[in-house]
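Hi again,

Forgot to attach this to my earlier email, sorry! This is the prediction with phenylalanine bound. I've pasted everything inline since the attachment limit keeps bouncing my files.
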Amino acid sequence: MSTTERASFTTKLGVIAATVGAAVGLGNIWRFPYTAGVNGGGAFLVVYLLCVLLVGLPLLLSELFLGRNTGQNPKGAFRKLSSNKKWQWVGVLCLISPTMVLGFYSVVAGWTAEYFLQSISGDLVGKNAEELGAIFTQFSQDPLRPIIWLFVFLGMTIAVSLGGVQKGIERVSNILMPVLFALLIILGIKSLTLDGAADGLKFLFYPDFSKVTAGVVLEALGQAFFSLSIGLGISITYASYFKKETNMPQTGVIISILDTGVALLAGIIIFPAVFTFGINPGQGPELVFITLPSVFNQMVAGQFWSTMFFLLLAVAALTSTISLSEVIVTFLVEEYKISRKKAVLALMAVCGVIGVISSLSLGAFSSYTFMGKNAFTLIEYVASNLLLPIAGFFIAIFVGWKMPKKVVHEELSTGGKFGAIMFNAYMFALRYIAPVGIIVVLLTQLGVI
Ligand code: PHE
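Structure tokens for the complex follow:
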């Protein structure tokens, strides 16, 4: 997208497909189950759902407002709406965090590609959970293989970006994503027939509130931001391509419901299997890569399912990395007037370095830790749990307090009705619940409270 021609989405379905496509990704299928697992299951889920409803959805709507109202990238959006230059720093934050996310996200995206190949070659067939754990450890700690995949993934991302074939990829993904969804439902049904189904469901759905700590709430908040892609400027950028007829509240609600639905489905697949095969639910980032192959091994034609699944997951990851790189590149081109090619190369270099450090921190550099976290978990933590909520806090203040209520209401109701009760509920959440919630959680986590 160049500065001069800002395109727009043509159809209603196109809007939904693109925005849901950007929201659904590794965050739902890889990050949600392992974060829920580490943070105690049911209680985490309850807090997570509250975060989506009270903080995520209002902020999502606010980003949509900022994007469509201004038709700008995040920094331009703040510049257009406020004469106070300080607000543009929130826009700049929306450049830094996507870059950090793209760095470690591409590493995990690379893992999905590796597992696709291992599925085809049959290396995962017939292995028990312990052996699958060893396979993952060996792969992720390898100094070279994951890094090659990282660059393959980054390379594909920028090739799409530079080659201008993004539309084509998106069209393909619009077909493949429903297939992924169908596959998840089949896997969910399979998981529910496993011996550990009852224990797994209990772990996921039965809340033990004694497990709720400030850390758990922060993780749930971070996961909600990450999964809905908010606090990154993604929705601002996407909405800058919306037409006036787009029904904003409806779009926001559909994104939230589908995104949460996919995460829940992933949980319904993973946890019954975790309890059936004696896997530790608090395993961490490798959870999905050990659990799912265990499920596939129990299925008729498991190798086929496994190959399909990892292929689709890799495609889902690719559409997410494309959307991230698109936001960063558009931002650099529009704001700093550098050529698209230079922007892409800069992005490749910076994200490549972040990715390499993240990847090596699981193996060769694993002894280097900071606050008990290796570089991978630290980068993920700082981006998702700190930077995204901080950006979210300022967006809530800006749209909730600085913008005239009438302007926000008008913008959000051009394509459909946004009734007074719902609008007031939205405003209340945006003005009070979201900012106070975010600040309390952040300060508690940082030990200030
Ligand atoms: N929301 C995406 C996911 O759940 C992650 C993502 C964030 C993708 C930001 C694009 C931009 O995987």
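The chain has a mean pLDDT of 91. DSSP finds 18 helices and no strands in the chain.

That should be everything now.

G.
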